[in-house]
Every structure is written in C-alpha cells, then in structure tokens.
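Example (one chain per record):
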Amino acid sequence: MRRALVAGIAALVSTLAFVTPACAVPSIAWTRTSPTVVRIDQAAPVRLSVKVTGGTPDAVVFTPLIGASISLHDDGVGADAVAGDGVWSVDLAAAPLVGGLTAADVFRRFVGYADLYVGATRTVRVELLVQVWTPELGFVGTSTPDATTRLSTYVMNVADPALFAADAGSNDAAVVPRLLQPFGDKFDFVDIVFDRSTAANRYHYVVRNAVSGIGLGANDLGAAYGSAARLKGVTVFPAMTYFDAGARAHSHEIGHQWINYLPQPALAVGAPHWPLSTLASGTMGFSIVGSGAVGDYPCTLTPAAGGLAATPHTGPYLFKDLDLYLMGLAPASEVATHYVFRTQSSALSFACEGTIPDNQFITVTIADVLAAAGARVPAFPAAQRDFTVGVIVVSDAPLSDEAMAFYDFFARRAEARATLAVHEGLAQQVEAPFFVQTGGRGTLTSHLPFASRATTTVVEFYRADRDHYFVTSNPAEIAGLDAGVFAGWSRTGYGFSAFAQPAAGASPVCRFYLPPPEDSHFFSASPAECAAVAAQHPTFILENASAFYLGLPDPVHGNCGPGETPVYRLWNHRPDTNHRYTIDRAVRAAMLAQGWIAEGDGPDAIAMCAPP
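Predicted structure:
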C-alpha cells in the first residue's frame, strides 16, 4: 500500500496480529499502558487502555499468558476516566507484567492479548507488549528547550496532545519541522514514533528524490517539511513497540527510499518489494499477493546443474547486491544474475530442498535493469554512503526520564556495527543493523547534532606544586585565577568549547569539589555518574549541577556526534586524586605515558563531547 506522496511502504508481516473478519465491527484502534515505559521495580498499578472504534463491543478483555482473563470497562468508574468514550481501561498489578523479563525480550515483554468480543465470539485479538525500564538502560542527559520538548542525545520528544491524537502520518509536515528548526537541515531521514500502539504498520515515504536510474521520478516536497535541500524521506511508526532503529525492519524502511520502483517487467510484479526470487531472501523480502505487505522468503536459491538449489535461509537477512546497487553502495558490475519465479502463485509450494528446475524461472540481469531504467546517477562510488536519521517521539505529555532513556537506547542502535538481539511482536531473533545490512558499505548516524547555540570556553589551569589540573568556564573564577587570587595556578594554554546554557543534544555537567587530601574537582556530563558520585562519596561537595553543558558519547562505541569533539578524562591514580580534561590527543597520550588512566566510553575512552 502507498499513500499519494508515499514512495514506498513496508512492514514485516509479524506486525500486530489482528484476526478480524471483513464484516466485523467494532475494532481496536490502539492499545496503551500508562506509563508507556514501566520500571522493573514499579509498585504502583499499570493502567491498560484499549481504544475501540466502529461500535460498542460486548466485552474487552485482557488475556494474560498465565492466569485468568481480566475485563476492561468503559463506564467512567475506577480506572476508566470517561464513560462511553470508546476507551476501555483497567488497572493491572505491575509485577506480573514486568516479572520474568529476559535478555531476549530486549526490554519489551510479551504479556498476553487484548481481546474484543461481540456476543460470545472473539472478533479481534491484539498482542500486547509492555516496555520495561531497568537499571541496565540507566538514565540519559536531557534538556528541555520549551514546555513541549525534551531532548536527549538521540531523541527529540514532542509532547503535543493534538499531534498525538491525530492519525499517525496525518500531521508529519507539522512534526518534522520541530526537529529541523533547532538542528537545521542536517537529516537525510526522520523517524516519527508515536508513544502508543496503533493498529497500523510502519511505513516509509519519499520526500525528495534526485536519483535517476532506479525507476522513481525526481521530486522535491522538502519545503513542506521545512527542509531546503537534504531531507530524503520519513518513516512513521504508529506502534511504539515496533520501533527499533537497529532492527532489520528499520533498514528495510530506509531501503524503500530506492527500492523497488524498477519498470523491468519481471521485477515490477513484486513492487513495492521484490517478487519471489533470489532477491526475496534479503532485507526487502517479497510482496504478499493482495496485501502489499512484506513476507520473508524462507529459501536461499543458488544456481546448480539444471536449476536452482533450494536450502533453508539461515542467519540475518541482508541487502542483496541489486539492493546495494540501487542504494548507490555497489557498482553495476557486482550485481549477479537473478532468478524470478515464472509463476508467483505457485512459488511457495516448492520446499527449501533439492533443485528447482530452470523452467520455473525468468532470468534478470543487470543489463535488463539498465535497459529498463537507465544507469543510476549518481553511481557508486560517487553516491552518498553516510546517512543521518533524526528520531522524534510524539506523546501527549512529556516523556518520563525512564521513557527518554528507553527510546534513546533504541534510537542509538541505528549506529550499531554488529548484529543485535531484536524483539518484535512474537519474534525474538538476531538481526543486522544498517551498517551490517550493507556489508559495511553504508553508515547511519542517529546522534542528534548540536543546535546552533552560543558557546563558552572552558579554560584549563595547572598548579605545579601539587601537579593538579583544573578547568572552569566561570568568568569570575578565570579572572581570579589569572590575577593570582587563587595562588599557584597558571593557564596551560589548553581548553575546549561548551554550552553555557541548556542546548539541544547537550547534558548538564556536574561539578564536585573533593575536600583534602584530594583538594580537587570532578566533572561529568552523565546524570547517572553524577548521581553515583553523590551517593558513593557523601563527603564530596556538589558545587554546581550544571557548570556548563556537553554532549555524551555513544556508550558502546564511544562515538561523538557529527561535528563534535571528543573530550578525554584522565585520572592520576594517586591518593591526591585529580583529573585532567582535554580534547588534545597528544596531551592525552602524554598523560597516559605518565601513568594516568583514561576514563570514558568505547575503545577510545571518550568522556564527553564538545561542540565545534
């Protein structure tokens, strides 16, 4: 299915298991828990709400995996706020919902179903997943530019009841500019995630296309979204539990920016995905006849004597060579011959074993593709290979700290460089993020760039008699240190930039004074680390909870965002504890050579990220 301006739409068929006869009314529009991200240690009840449209059912029931069914109500009593508004609600004990969470759940636990009954007949069944915050997710630094916006390093939360209540995708032109206005036209793609689970599949549509040779005409709707030149497409996630920027489905949706619009007859029958073929066992899958939704072809087909050898597909799904060519990540010379089932309706009748005869296939070569669509321009290697995506979570009220950390985690996974455990619906499996999907040919950055804000300079001082370093951006302190009010200190000539005020993508840097014998200072942009220092060292004095503002690196890979400068923190490992903060790698190397210890994230031990 496609919308008028939609270039491609796809959702994996595991999405939202509805079983509703064509004539059945009413139906379930959305489900939601309050809170939408539940703490693993939550003691208060969790409210389950189910929005019913199209009529009034005889019953709405929560059917847990274990235990008796529980009825929801729309009578304005107890958990239900308003009688007769179509929102059926019930308060549930938190412990059974979050208990038993495993690593394979990836912070989303399948807990049962929302069932709708007309008479004694169950007409609709919707799977229910609860999103769970645990200490493993921790907390992330956030800023609040205004009453309706929260920012973390990887997520913008837009709290707007009107945008939240509207149908997903109906107000994208009002949502996307909320991201572009503070950050600028710096995104190739934007993800819009709704903080609820709506009965609709995720989808991608093209905003701007300047690529020829892929079967899609040039178009530019960027102005309607506040983008002058860069924004290429938007992916909408109406169901919050299906957002994971490291999942195969996320790469699949981005793939629809270029795939499949080819006019080549044998391939066009599969649009917007591929037909059942050697291409169908990749990231883009095949189009299920009659629905346009994507299916996973379970067989790998390999040329063999007299036909194609069929074996069960194993491992994560990856982009195929023709996918990579259309994306601009591979030359035409690397695209092998592909084989399309001559009769699509009978293709799935062949088992993933033995040899399927040649006469069952139509061959398609890259020459056929070029003859039908022309050569891709720009072509590999001149085509873009590094892309950025901005994530917006739309909610009816500002997200909690737990929810910000939760969505930040799933947005950050776009940048992963190795396979990941993924949980979508009832499926738990290992999948490949974009970098792995493309065989390392393409990258996807989800780290929000710093907004254009005034910066201040953090100046470094040194006291030789104690071999101690100190940094400050406070003008009065700098003047006092320069004037000798604080004896023994002199400038080193080093320093770095920071924000003096809250800034998009930046976190407040806490400043602790360590009394003698340390007589030193400690700085961190990590809220979790600041809290841990206060808890573990009660004698330390919190002089300033926001001495200045810096970004945080990706905690797994230690990467700062585009244009940001790594800030290194080094510890002297002595009883008179002291830290040095620097952006100079030569200084870092010299301190390490003296026995100082690097503290930070990733292989390069980056502590914070400074604006340019």
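Caption: The mean pLDDT is 92.
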